[in-house]
Structure formats: C-alpha cells, structure tokens
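SAMPLE LOG
Freezer: B-3
Tube label: C17
Construct: single chain, 722 aa
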Amino acid sequence: MSPTYMTFDDLKKALEESGRGYNMENITKAYELANTAHADQKRRSGEPYISHPLNVAKLLVELGMDSESVEAGLLHDVVEDTAVDLPTIESKFGTGVMHLVDGVTKLTKMQFSSVEEQRAESIRKMLLAMSQDVRVMIIKLCDRLHNMRTGDAWPEQKRRDKALETMEVYAPIAHRLGISNIKEELEDRSLQFLDPVGYAEIRNLLDQKNGEEFLKNISAVIQKHLEENGIHDAHMKSRVKSVYGIYRKTYVQNRSFDEIYDIYAVRIILDTVAECYNALGVIHDMFHPIPNRFKDYISTPKPNMYQSLHTTVIGHEGIPFEVQIRTKEMDQMAEYGVAAHWKYKEGIQGKTPLEERLAWVRQLLESQRDSTDAGDLLRDIKSDLLPEEVFAFTPKGDVITLPAGANVIDFAYAIHSAVGNRMVGAKVNSHIVPIDHKVVTGEIIEIITGPADKGPSRDWLKMVATSQAKNKIRTWFKKERREENIQQGKEAFEREMRRNFINLPPEKVESFAAELARRNRMNSPEEMYAAIGYGGLQMSRVTAKMKEEYAKLQAAEPKPVTLEDVPVKRHHSSEGVIVEGIDNCPIKFAKCCSPLPGDEIIGFITRGFGVSIHKRDCTNVQASMKDPENAKRWVKASWEDSVQEQFNASLEITALNRDGLLGDITAAFSDMRVPIYAMNARQVENHKAVMNITFGTANTEHLNNVIARLRRIRDVISVVRN
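STRUCTURE (predicted):
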C-alpha cells in the first residue's frame, strides 16, 4: 500500500468546509505553479515536496486566513528552492502575494557568525516581517509547524537545532500573537526532540489517566446544571494540558504530577459576558473551588488580548480540573489570536488597532539599525516585545517580569513572599523611592526589609497590580491576623445585613450566619468572617446567598393578618394618598421605607400623629403585623390617580473610587433637573466608594429612570434604593 500524503483535493475540501468565500481561481493557479516548480523535488521522508506547501496552506485555512495568505502558503518555497522569481509571482498573483512570499523567504536566508548574533538577527527579521504585514509571521509559523510534524526525517543534530530554535523563537512569537494551538504544538514537538525520555514519561502518565472520558462526563454534568439554572445554548469544549506545560511544572518547578491542578480543563462558551459571570457562580456552587486559583482575564485581558474567566475546582471524584468560561468572540481570540480579527479578513481599509499595536516594532528596528552588539539588541527587543510588560533587575542581576503599572511592592513579592512581607522600603537605581513607585523597564531595584515579624499593610491590597502579590498579602493576613480578620469580617457582615434591611432577633443571627457559612463551604461563622476579613471571600458573593436565606426564613414565618375591606367612603388627602375608613386625618410618610407613588402602600394608625404610610413590603410592617395588638391598627391605603406632590427618595451608590466620580454623579442629577437635598460619601474596602444621596422625585417610574441613568456612569458598580 502506498503512503498517504496531502493532495490538492484535501485542500479544496478544507476550503469548502470553512464556509468562507475564497478566491478558488487564484488558489488553483498558485497550486499549479507550485506543483510544476516542485515537480522533481522530494522531501527527506520520500513524499512529493508539494505535500509540504499544501499542508501549510491547509493550516492557514484552519486559522481562518484570507485567500492571499493561502496562495502565499502554497508558493512560500518556490523563490528559494526553484527557478520561479518574485516578478513572476507579482505578475500572476499581484503585489500582495509577492510581498508575502518575499517576506517569508527572507526569514530563512541569512547566515550568521555566532549563535548569539544568529538569535538576535532571527528575532530582528521576524519583528521586521511582523511590522510590515503580520500575515508573513503567521505563514512562517505554519511552515515551521508542519516541518516540526515531519521532523523525524531530519538528522539527529538538525532535529535538536530546529527544536531549540522553535522553542526559543517561534513558540514565544506564536504566544505573543495569541495563537495558542500553534504555540502549544510547537512546544510539544520541540520537547519530543530535545528530551524524548521526559516527553514519553509524561505522555504515558496522561494515557494512563483516561482524562478524555473524565472530561466527557464532567462536561455533560456541567451542561445539565447550566440548563437548570437558566443558562441555555452553552457550547462545551475540553482539553488536556499540553505535554510541555506539564513538563515545565514537573521538571522545572519540581512538582509531582498530582500537584498540577490544571491538567484537565473544561471550556464553557456562551453568548454574553453576563452569562459568563452567572455560569461562574453555578460552577462554584457545584464544586469546591481551590483558593487563590480564580483569574478574571475578562476584566483584565492578557497582553496578547486573551480574555476568559479561569477557576480551578475539585470534582466529586476528587480530581482537580480547570474551568474556563468565555464568549464566542473570546474563544475565537484565544484559539487564533491576531488571525481572528484583522482587516484582510473583512476587506477593511485604513488603520486598524492591530497595525497600531505593531507600530512600535518598526520604531524599535529603526533605532537599532546601526547596532553591532547582539546582546544589546536582544535586551532591547525583549524589553519592547511586549509593551504591556516591564522588566526590572535585582541588585544580583536577576530579571523580574511584571505587568505594566506594577509597583515596587509587586516587585518584592515577585522575588519571594518573605521579601514582600518584610518590605519597609525600596531603592531604585540607588535612590529611595515611595512604595507605590511604578516599575520602569531597566531599573535596578533593591528591596529594603525589616524584622521577620513585620508583615504587610492592608492598604497594599489597594496598591498592588498583580494577583500574585494580592494573594500573598491575603495569605499572610489569613495566617497571622486571624482575630483581627474575624472582627473585621463580622463587622462587614453585619453592615451588609443592615444595608439589605435584614432584621433578625439576636437569637437567630448565629444560626443564620452558620447556614451562610455552610453554603460558602466554611466550617463555622468564624471561618467565614475570617475569610471576609482577609479578602478570601468577596462580600458580593455572600450577599446573594444572604438574601436567599432571609427570603426562606420570611416564607416560613406565619402569614401576616390580611386587612378586611371596609365599605366606607374614601378620603383624598392633600398628600395624594387615599386611606380607607378614615376621614380628614393627617398623613405622614414613614422614613424607614420612604414610599413613592407607584409603590404598594399600607397605613398605620398612630397614637395622636395621624396615619403613617409604609411600603407594603417594609420589614417593619411584617414585624408589626405579627403583634395582635398592632395588627388591628393597619388600614388599607392607596395613591390618588394623579399625584402632583414631590417626594424624597434615597439611593445608595457603590462605585470604584476615582477622581471626578462625585462630579459625574452630581452632573447627572443636574442634567435630569433633579434636586439633591442631602449627600454623604465614604471610602470602603477594595478601593471603592459608597454614596448616599437624598433627592426629590415624583414616583417610582421617575426614580427608576434616575437609577438607570446613574448606572450608566463609568465605574458605578450598583445603585440601590435605601
């Protein structure tokens, strides 16, 4: 039986199945030219040479690339290996395809005198190709990937050289461009050639675990629970961690196979960002989340534009696995990186965000044109390769990589937890700086440490930029300040109860807190308070369950006494309220619930002060009706059909604290011509601000319009009626 290899029919099938409108006439012409040019050539494996450009073209189709890219993929070796020249390509396929073929050819032509110079020049050429047209780099990555897939035919030394170059240059660039599938396969193929024993050992461990079956079952269970919680049309994917990803953690970080928590991952793909966060809540209710393993890349994307929610949980079988939650657009970005959204795909002309993102590359190359020191070039390229990252040095010369915006506290914790915990100050280039000094690439930073029991400040949680530093600070407070955490957490818990009008007798508060602790997977209320205190448990997560539990308690209570209809005439009071059974009686509005026209209301006959009007669902109404003596004093009340009065309403606004926030809020009230009667504001934990505003309004419809307008202000988290 003859060996099978890629044919043009296979490529045509891939093009048809993609569902995109490719220029089949030009692609067919490109194949015919390449097939003729490579007709007498064979690969080392013995198969016809044309199978290689066909495989490269198919990989480009799988990435969603455009017709010009597919044509250039078919032609990428003809100029270097055959008699076909660039003018011929330009005359047959146009300037665009010619430039792509020329760019790919230039990436592999030059010879170098030293390994260091070769590495620097390789990166220089790749950056040049990316700056002119990022498609050149994507075609080259596909070319390298297919070569690595067939690398067994290379001599031993060439295999190792190509694998090392792939690991050090091509895989990192695939990562920078966000093309995760190509990046992971390049790493795995390189590892197979560089350390075949280590690769085989991990491959065998994965095969023994039967992870595919586990992922299939767990995906079905998750999908069923999502449906039951109203999240429909979730698309489920799953993956087993790449061999190289496991290799790095087992060999480089010296961890056992069982200590790696993200070997298995389930991916939930949804329609909207709101559904993503709802699904996260469902997952955390289904499984036990592992502390400090949650990452929100939706609100804070990675530098390569990757977005997703990540959380690691332990399944009912005791096997840890990662859950990734993202939208369809985010999944496209994660799979294909910059190949997922650029102007060539849609025929868009003019400047694009992608071009602006790559503009810094050209500036870097211009500034380095006359450089002869390969080491300097490498350092500069590394510094600029990711503008969103900074690189600084310890006094011993170790390089610390941090996200842009990180400060010297982040730097200290990136060195070691103990260094961060003992930090009392910092020197940058031998000068003392404030502890919120932002790290700049190239700085030499020395951390000044104090006594071993010094410990961090809680304020640092608001200052640091990295999740690593935040987690280490929280861990210190968790271990060293338990009593303080419990006290702070309990105070925050009680404040939240008051804010949500949850009034319980003192004897019931403890059992209420115990039930909430159980629902949050804590062993006792004290453990829950401590977690709230050090930041391990977000109050927003507790609040939702708190309201549910209180609703259950309310439902279990005896039904309030219903009011009998009294067949007497109605009196229209001057306040716009109709009270049944009472004539010419003064009316006042209860401050505990501040009813507005549109609210369902009820009246309470006071002793000597007329009728007090409450919202029907006011907590004080529910409590009073349980008292037989007071129950008789409640009377039916309703609003007049057209109320002309203006009433006071109060709102509580929670927002991220920033300059200009108060001005934006007051400007919104001014634009709506709504009078403000009282306002107070305070800063709370996690760099947030809470404002209480009392203003004039006509009814609940007007109030809801005000709330909707306030919620649209930048950085406003919630607006609730007091």
